[in-house]
């Protein structure tokens, strides 16, 4: 029976039975317990409400958008309509893309990207490969065509998740190289993963008006040689909007002071409570179900710093001299500093050319008046009054340059 899911961003999503089997698998259901934005959601209060979203919702949303993007490409591409059976991309490649979209984050650690500060060597994409093998081993009745030719389709799913063709050891006809640009587009960075998380995060941040770039994907088609996905020239400003929105979210939300401090505290807690070998045990497929937000916090609940991850903790910014005085009064309290930087918006744009149709040459030149933001946050956790005192050293550099997105 098909599965019907009500999504806060995309509305009703109908899931086919074979996809539903994967969604019901405990390894996929685990994503319900992984916050999409790590610690950011603890304090991101918008319109007197806190919207929580999980990796589960994002993964299903990415699957749904991959289906929309595939159908748009089939509808808009003449050689697919006229030369492919039923006017569709072959099922082998179609299903591999859809499953890559669904499973691209299945290997995410507890607290999503916050774990990257704890263990920089943890690779959620490589972990996803192991979990995908486990899911297909446990459900041998589904997607038999992906198992033919020495698991050709399953290996393709894994490579599509990383976005690197070099990770696919089998032969892929040139005509279907474009499939690597749906889920994790390493060529021009326009993909359905960004489409979903920017829309989803935009809803959390109350910035939904910045995420109106659906036409970029719905008007796209495949190039004649099958090497790339190309985009309608008149949608070029929405492409620019996609990348500038991503930059704005980094500037205004992902790099908020409390989020950076929470990640630093979390890193300190985990590293002093777990050995490297204990962490590596969490990453194993047979113990991975317990590698979730709640279980990790429960394991460190008695650590003196854990309470500073709670949303009730107060944050107080103070001048540099006063901060030094407070640190001297709290000699045994945890004090640290974190430096972060945000590149100018032009650095968030593709390094390669964006394929447009009809060919109009380069995009219009746009003046990039954004800045290289660099800040160092010094903070101390005061256990006596449950306050985090912090001071920010701003090392931002101002400059202006012209931005021209090649086409």
Automatic annotation (TrEMBL):
In this chain the HD/PDEase domain maps to 51-207
Gene Ontology MF term list: dGTPase activity
What this protein is called in its record is Deoxynucleoside triphosphate triphosphohydrolase SAMHD1 homolog isoform X1
Q: Which family does it belong to?
A: Belongs to the SAMHD1 family.
- Recorded GO CC terms: nucleus
Supply the SUPFAM superfamilies for this chain. HD-domain/PDEase-like
Name the domain of life this protein comes from: Eukaryota
